[in-house]
Design brief:
single chain, 96 residues, five-stranded antiparallel beta sheet, 48% strand
Length: 96
């Protein structure tokens, strides 16, 4: 199944060879998830995923509540992650 990925942020890790990617993933089936990817750097390989954690829109709303974030449109059943995460200038790719 093909999917679109939009890189929302790259956060530096505690060490120079580590980082955390925040990625919005949308499948052709219309599902959206926020994915957190912990990556490490290896010479000859480059950046590679160590761990990956997917959050569906409901989990994302709960996480935002725990962190004290407020949504611009606090609706009970928001179906779409992009409406929850308005980030300008995201880098989008399409992958298989």
């Amino acid at each position: 199944m093909q999917k679109n990925e939009c890189l929302l942020a790259t956060l530096p890790g505690s060490q120079s060879g580590d980082r955390l990617l925040v990625v919005l993933v949308q499948t052709k089936a219309g599902k959206s998830q926020l994915v957190l990817r912990q990556q490490s750097w290896a010479e000859g390989i480059g950046w590679y995923d160590q761990k990956s954690l997917s959050l569906d829109p409901h989990q994302l709303r709960q996480l935002k509540a725990v962190l004290g974030c407020r949504s611009s449109s606090p609706q009970k059943d928001e179906p779409d992650v992009p409406a929850i995460l308005p980030f300008p200038g995201v880098a989008c790719t399409e992958s298989a």
